[in-house]
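Run: sequence + adenosine-5'-diphosphate -> complex structure.
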Amino acid sequence: MPRRDDIEKILLIGSGPIVIGQACEFDYSGTQACRSLRAEGYEVALINSNPATIMTDPESADQVYLEPLTIEICQAVIARERPQALLPTLGGQTALNLARELALSGTLEEFGVELIGARLEAIERAEDRERFHALMLEHGMAVPRGGFARTQEEARRVTAITGFPVIIRPAFTLGGLGGGVAQTAEEFEELAERGLRISPIGEILVEESVLGWKEFELEVMRDRADNCVVVCSIENLDPMGVHTGDSITVAPQQTLTDREYQAMRDTAFRVIRAVGVETGGSNIQFAVDPATGRQLVIEMNPRVSRSSALASKATGFPIAKIAAKLAVGYTLDEITNDITGDTPASFEPTIDYVVVKIPRFDFAKFPSADRRLTTAMKSVGETMAIGRTFGEALQKGLRGLEMNAVGLFERGPEALADADLAERLETPVPERIFLVAEALSRGWTIERLRVATGIDPWFLHRIEDLARLEDAERGTAFEEMAPATLRRLKAAGFSDAHLARRWKLGETAVRARREALGIRPAFKVVDTCGGEFAARTPYFYSTYDEENEAYSLAGPKTVILGGGPNRIGQGIEFDTCCVQAAYALREIGHSVVMVNCNPETVSTDYDVSDRLYFEPLTYEDVSAILEIERPDGVLVQYGGQTPLKLTRRLAAAGVPIVGTAPDSIDRCEDRDRFARLLAHLGLAQPRSGIARDADEALREAEWVGYPVLLRPSYVLGGRGMVVVRDATALKRHLGEARYAFEEGPLLIDEFLEGAVEFDVDVIADGARAVIGGVMQHIEEAGIHSGDSTCILPPHDLEPGTERELREQARRLALELGVRGLMNVQFAVKDGRVYVLEVNPRASRTIPFVSKATGVPLAKLGAQVMVGRTLAEVGLESDPEPLAVAVKAPVFPFDRLPGADPVLGPEMLSTGEVIGLAADAPTAYLKALRGAGVDLGAAVSRGVLFSLNDRDKPAGADVAAQLKSRGVAIHATRGTREHFLRSGVDAALVLKVGEGEPDAAQLIRSGGVGLVINTPLGRSAPYEEFALRRAALVSGVPCITTISAARFGVQALAGADSAPAVRSLQRWAARHRARSVP
Amino acid sequence: MRVIERPARLALEDGWTALGRAVGSPGSGGGECVFNTCLSGYQEVLTDPSYAGQIVVMTYPLIGNYGITAEDSESSGPQVAGFVVRECVRRPSNWRAVESLPAYLERHAVTAIEGIDTRALTRHLRVRGALRGVITTEDLDAEAAIQRARSLPLMEGQDLTGEVTCAALGVEGAVAGRLTVAALDYGLKQNILRRLGAAGCRVLRLPADATAEDALALRPDGLFISNGPGDPAAASRAIETLRQIGRRAPDLPTFGICLGHQLLALAHGGSTYKLKFGHHGGNHPVQDLRTREIDITSHNHGFSVREATDGARRIVAGAPELEVTHVNLYDGTLEGFRHVERPLFAVQYHPEAAPGPHDARHHFDEFVAMIESRRGEA
Ligand SMILES: Nc1ncnc2c1ncn2[C@@H]1O[C@H](COP(=O)(O)OP(=O)(O)O)[C@@H](O)[C@H]1O
Ligand SMILES: Nc1ncnc2c1ncn2[C@@H]1O[C@H](COP(=O)(O)OP(=O)(O)O)[C@@H](O)[C@H]1O
Ligand SMILES: [Mg+2]
Ligand SMILES: [Mg+2]
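>> structure
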């Protein structure tokens, strides 16, 4: 069936900010969809609030609406754009839920918009767990026993059938949000309540537990002619009970016989047909009883998902792109398999390698959070690795995680006593795989581990094989190891770094010996067909096998090193920069080779570059690629810290680094050199000291002057940074954190209390520097720049100071000889400008600034790095913003039970949204709306204040303003007393522990719509923690800085109450019209 | 557990050779080297009689994951002449596993080799076409092994139907089934019997040397022609039997799979040719030209039926009464035909799957429906 001609314009909804459970994979799917729909000649309109995405680049869609993802906004966009169709299956759960609401509210009908991909009935049948359950039973498919509940009482009744433990799964949520396992009736009460509240339709499934069963997923595609194919099968290493997003998963499935696998495939097709997903990709999850092989259907997602992105990368079959084509009428046989170039897409990929996906967690940033892995997802990113054996893929994946692991056998678990190891193995935690490896090296039996962990013996056997392989060589001196044995170890995935550690050698020595023996990795192609047909698409992975299929690509060529797995502090922004660099360099005739290992990303789409290497970003793996490719340059500035960390070694090995010289990077990263740089330019820096023991720390802090900011020097990215206000607190901190001075000194900086922070992004060509944008933070310095709400252009800054910031940034760029991008963080206190940090690389804010100014900084930066001047790329002067833009962060607290939602100098947010408007207040409220907070509605339900002493005066002003708007004010004792003294009346609320009813109860009962709580530091007393958790659990927004509260109240007063929606293209047109006199 | 490793060599007639580790039994195995792209189902592959005389290279690198089960063999034991894998998994995991793959290979004296870059070998076979090869654990140097590969008979011209057939007439399938089907066994896979049985057929299985009289004497309601190994054009006895049956019982509902499909074409005057490296896998898309429906199908054949056109009609070359019904969307080859007048159809692929997807199972129902409608008319 050919493409549908009755449709001209299609609306796509994106997935919004990156949150746990919804990450870059939807940028990947959305970008693919936009591209393929436009290639088919359709006009595409897009709504997404996330400025850090590729899909929201003005080139991606005809009209890009960077607007909050709310039903009202979608309605307004539909009214404005009048699309004939809405494709809801590529923007995650967010898009699916919005599409459902738009259908139910009659909007789609009113404007004659057709849902394509999945119709309303199909969405309902799959997402409403009750209907899904019933449908499965009706079609004779096995599901866990259970029942549905809309009230606590109903829920309780179901447990009579299921017994305990019992699983709670809310309808219409993603990433298992609000679900969990209740072992006891008590736990059940809490989980059921939470689940009912979190489900958008107030419904939960209470279900028989099949904890410990094997878990599988099939990625299925269907077309209008009812052709169904399985793109990929995935087996979870972690059994049922650990969310697939938090599980180590393997493709293809390993432990089912063909008979069992085909039965699963048959069921999957019956499910997709019964649900009635007409076209596109769906994902179906199964549980399999390891003792009998009985298969149960767990759920189906009628849309592309995180697993579809994984399946696409694992097989080379671009699910999202094909799903988009199927949605507009094509059938699978009418679409060509890009990889072979002449076979159709109506086939099932077969692979000749093993793929392992490993989740990445960031619990170190949330010390109070519950680290146990359950049915609700907690990981913030993932990496994928390809190898010819499971061991090779697993160990590549583990080093690709960048959690300092060089492989499966790590030092940490070695130190555990047997009893501790046994105990820790019982509960699934992020590091469980290392514990399993350790136990197997200790000779524990497979059966013991199977019982303790529920992990299938197949995986345990493979891990045990690895342990034995390594152990067998313990007695051999490295230089005497037989070449065949070394090759065997390499083929089993042991990294040079691991071998170096085991044999107490330098990595260089290991590498030298290996190369002397001619043991080098070969590169093989991901071709969808197991070698049956010639592949055109250059998508490679390394393996220790005989034949190498990669040869050096001809012509001017740049290698771009990507950012690896998403983590807090390094996410989609960097991937977006890498992709833009690829586009920009290809535009000017360069060949681009991309290296990355994050399956969620656009950068790992084989279409983006001339060649893709799906490899970990370690020195060993990267240099093997560089040896083959011998590029003219390597771009390290765009993938965040990951490639930057490799710069020194790469440069030392003679690799040409494009852009800013490695020495300049070092001048910014090395503390002493940085201080000298600033001194040389006459720029100010907060006073700072360095301490090698506790006594020195106290002396230095005294000299620097309290409050001080402590930074451990051995951790990266603001980890473990805290503000300490006096000597007692410092002593307590050193004691509590058991600060390990042997690992590196402690850096002690003067903390600039109450300073205003700015981010400045610069692009420079070595001779000239242009300021891309100056952003003012709404929160005071002390809140990590990634967690601050920031506004461009600055909303209250003396013109003189702004000029000063621009000037200082320019001087830094020129002094450092920056070629490419650079970011400077400034703090301004009492009119004085301090430089906090200089990052000679693309910053997190580059995509945001690019959207706000319409200047594609990452693209231009890449072209500058390979030798163009700013004049040549057409950037003559500092750009002006198209509109007022506000960037607001989004936090994962609601997904991490036990986490304390307090901001500080360590970054905690996972994603961001943008608000664009003609004025600052409106832009700010829009950004908050995009981040899920309707500030106006929230304050109207009453505001609870609980402030620290420093913030009380400013808080009283805020309260007074709210009061004048008729808002009910509640305050805890001390805060209230101060308010009363300042003439602001407030109702008294008891703190938790002071008696009842307390603040937590007030929040839970819906008595307030907003909490303003400013703690002193992060080691907050329990009652404050309880207050904030209550807000979080009840979905009440909580503001933790007085500067944000102040700005919010001002915004409420000044904002446009019904702002129009406007696409990025129209903002640009408006700007052009205004600047031409 | 330190596995004692024995070296083994794989050598092809064109001089390609590689060293690996022996699995299974020591000795040598020789035959035509082909690759199979199924991800699961190695037990079915090993025991598929159509692989007689062939060395099978599995493209998926981990083989043996779930061991060997009691239920999944397609015949009484392994049929391949040799087996090549990247890594043979010694400790399997599956609730139905009764034995590990290497133990099974050893017990059945199959020569197999692991540690081979099977992707490199596959790419080589793709470019050069299927080649004769040997796997050996003997102390042969490369040259001697290559020579041995060259001395093997070519697949073209070999009639292997008699090698893998049943010993004598037997009753299988649904023993008390409503319909009686005579099945000519040239290497019949177990799952075909299961599928015919599930469709309600009592199957009378005839050995390869059965004549038309033998078959017709059973007064069957339908005739089934099985899959099998070797060059179809060389199977003159079988072709003659089919011609005879066609002449004497033109209205007997007939269904052929794989070799059966080729033999039926040949019996009607069609011809076959050798494919470069054949189709061996579980993911080939086949389209029904009449309905445009696509099935993902299981394949195992090295020869194909030649196609021609007759005006706008796609027909079997040399047999205008055989109309093409199915084509392979990968390479456009002929995958199925039907007789324009008589109740006869055949497919080149494996609707019985095992291993592979079940999409094409409906052909068994179609066969039964064909028989039933004949009976209704009779
Ligand atoms: N009945 C059950 N028993 C045990 N674990 C379960 C059960 N149902 C689901 N799970 C686990 O919970 C996880 C999340 O459930 P799922 O329904 O897939 O939610 P989501 O929509 O977030 O993917 C699954 O991946 C599985 O590990
Ligand atoms: N001397 C200081 N005074 C006040 N706040 C500071 C100071 N130094 C850093 N900060 C705050 O800490 C945050 C993180 O510090 P930074 O050096 O940027 O770490 P990272 O490397 O994680 O980006 C900054 O965004 C700023 O808000
Ligand atoms: Mg789901
Ligand atoms: Mg799920």
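>> summary
The radius of gyration of chain B is 21 Å. Residues A 244, 285, 299 surround magnesium ion (ligand 4) (CB under 6 Å).
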